[in-house]
Design goal:
The protein has 81 residues and is α+β, with helices and mostly antiparallel strands. It is 21% helix and 41% strand.
């Protein structure tokens, strides 16, 4: 099991609606080790996360590309190890 700390997040959706998010995260495992990585995850209309056993349905390749583009525009490339 792991706890997840969100470092950065982008979305192409609007608050108050379900929206797909792309996150750069730190995974903190029960044994104390950590890893950084990325995930796609849905936020519900009430802004809570929809954890789905590590899987998020991505509606289209275009949606995925747009979120990755938004992350690059937000400067993620400059801050990633």
């Amino acid at each position: 099991m792991a706890n997840v700390k969100i470092i950065r997040e982008v979305t192409n959706g609007s608050p108050g609606n379900w929206r797909l998010c792309f996150q750069w995260c730190e995974y903190i495992y029960d044994n104390g080790s950590t890893e950084k990585g990325y995930r796609f995850i849905w936020r519900r209309d009430d802004d809570t996360l929809q954890a789905a056993r590590g899987q998020a349905r991505i509606p289209s390749f275009r949606d995925m590309q747009e979120l990755i583009f938004l992350a690059a525009q937000d400067g993620w490339l400059a801050s990633i190890e």
